[in-house]
């Protein structure tokens, strides 16, 4: 009599089915709807839609500000994670908890608060206005908002790696005469590169599609500070669902490509660190 191998996990089939169903409802079906609505347009119409001057300008603003903000987040995130892991100071737990604030704070509230701070009459914007630097309603303001939104992704990606890093390596390098900067660049930095890249990719993907916190501080000037998500909202308000989903599909593909490349680089770096080829 043939013996069947049973799964050691009770209810594996049921839980897998439930998981796939939830995944389909929450993720796959909404993404598929983008393709379905976009398919209502011919290829020439799709190209015409995404190459309109106003749309191309919004792509440029969204991609440039998201990339710059993610780079800033990568640097600041590593520094913040380093401080939170390596140092003890008063109110450390409070500061650590505040890293999660952009996740918990409604994006509209964040946008209004940042606009009030960076406007020419605001606390921060007023200071820079004295030197002729305008923050709110410019691409600088958009970048500031995106930095605020994306910083937790890098901090929370790098922080666990630093916590698990064995201090014995640093101590051994110090005993052998290595300077503190050399210890960081040769021992610590290679270990946190994969995590930093992951945080960068997640921050970039979030910044690319951010709407609520940006729409207030951007000013939404066509060809200057108008972002792609705002173009999508405008198309939806005009009931042009095909154009809206086509533009959204471009943003989605860009996010997927970014995350794929980041994961590819991360995998490669991990293999190198483990001594692979």
Task: Give a brief description.
The chain is 77% helix and 0% strand. The protein is built from 13 helices and no strands.
Describe the structure.
By secondary structure, the chain is mainly alpha-helical. It is built from 13 helices and no strands. Helix 6 runs parallel beside helix 11.
Q: Tell me the name of the CATH homologous superfamily.
A: MetI-like
Biggest sheet record: none
Number of strands: 0
- SSE topology string: HHHHHHHHHHHHH
Taken together, the total number of domains comes to 1
Radius of gyration equals: 23 Å
Low-confidence stretches: none
Task: Assign the structural class, choosing from mainly alpha, mainly beta, alpha/beta, alpha+beta, or little secondary structure.
Answer: mainly alpha
CATH architecture: Orthogonal Bundle
Residues in helix, %: over 70%
Identify the overall geometry: globular
According to CATH, the fold-level topology is MetI-like fold
Average of per-residue pLDDT values: 86
User: What proportion strand?
Assistant: under 5%
Regarding CATH, which class?
Mainly Alpha
Number of helices: 13
**Span between termini:** 47 Å
Can you give keywords for this protein?
13 helices, MetI-like fold, 277 residues, mainly alpha
Write the layout of secondary structure elements.
Layout: H1 12-38, H2 43-50, H3 53-86, H4 92-98, H5 101-104, H6 107-118, H7 123-129, H8 139-164, H9 167-175, H10 180-208, H11 212-218, H12 228-237, H13 241-273
Helix pairs in contact: 1-13, 3-8, 3-10, 3-12, 6-8, 6-11, 8-10, 8-11, 9-10, 10-13, 12-13
């Amino acid at each position: 009599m043939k013996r069947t191998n049973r799964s050691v996990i009770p209810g594996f089939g049921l839980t897998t089915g439930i998981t796939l169903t939830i995944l389909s409802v929450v993720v796959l079906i909404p993404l598929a709807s983008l393709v379905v609505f976009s398919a209502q347009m011919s290829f020439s119409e799709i190209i015409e839609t995404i190459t309109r001057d106003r749309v191309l300008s919004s792509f440029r603003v969204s991609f440039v500000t998201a990339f710059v903000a993610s780079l800033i987040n990568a640097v600041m995130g590593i520094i913040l994670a380093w401080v939170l892991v390596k140092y003890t100071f008063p109110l450390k737990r409070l500061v650590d908890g505040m890293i999660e604030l952009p996740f918990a704070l409604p994006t509209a509230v964040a946008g209004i608060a940042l606009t009030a701070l960076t406007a020419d009459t605001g606390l921060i914007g007023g200071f820079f206005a004295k030197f002729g630097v305008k923050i709110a309603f410019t691409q600088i303001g958009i970048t500031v908002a995106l930095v605020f939104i994306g910083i937790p992704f890098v901090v929370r990606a790098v922080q666990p790696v630093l916590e698990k890093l064995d201090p014995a390596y640093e101590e051994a390098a110090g005993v052998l005469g290595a300077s503190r900067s050399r210890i960081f660049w040769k021992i610590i930095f290679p270990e946190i590169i994969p995590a930093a890249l992951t945080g960068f990719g997640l921050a970039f993907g979030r910044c690319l599609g951010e709407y609520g916190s940006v729409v207030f501080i951007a000013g939404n000037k066509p060809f200057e500070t108008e972002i792609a998500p705002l173009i999508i909202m405008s198309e939806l308000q005009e009931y042009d669902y095909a154009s809206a989903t086509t533009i959204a599909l471009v943003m989605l593909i860009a996010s997927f490509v970014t995350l794929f490349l980041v994961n590819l680089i991360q995998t490669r770096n991990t293999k190198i660190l483990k001594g692979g080829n």
